[in-house]
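pasting Methyltransferase domain-containing protein for the record, 202 residues
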Amino acid sequence: MVRTVKDRITLLKDVLPKEAVCAEVGVCEGEFARQILKHSRPRRLHLIDVWAGIGACGAVGTTDEVSRRRLQQVSWDFDAQIKSGKAMLHQGLSALVLESFKASYFDWVYVDADHSYEGLLRDLWALHISQSIRDDGLIAGHDYGTAEDLPKMAHPCPGVAQAVDEFCERCGWELVCRTEVGPREGEDPDGSNAPSFVLARR
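structre below
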């Protein structure tokens, strides 16, 4: 049975392991990364983003200037964590970066980068091929909207659920938790309106 929790702040507090080695794929301006540090207290957090002109659903959507500014802001905001070794920045195409980690490295990874079917499947496949998730580790992510959810979401991306479901069927994972679709409000407005998912190995 799939567990349902209120939002991704609850996910960080009650579902994803604390003091973990983890990653956020698709950092943008670092809003959710701040929540990860606050609520999950990771041992090490890898922040992965291309920071170079790719919009939310796979289309070109930002200028190089905007991307550079976002990367610079994240670098400043996480300066103390980077200097202490608690956080690491990785700029590059997410699937290629994910393939570079050693086997059984991550306790969990949160994927929120390319929201197209093809893009998300590439990221999930990279995690599977590299075997970088521990045997008892988790893959989580954002914008898992079912057909019923999509009309309620401010930014629906139908390819996400398709990619996640196909990955689970082909690679031996299963959906174990998801968040509700609520209004854009509270501590994490982006997360409250779009369902997150959590996968575990079958």
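The chain has eight helices and eight strands.
The CA atoms of residues 148 and 181 lie 10 Å apart.
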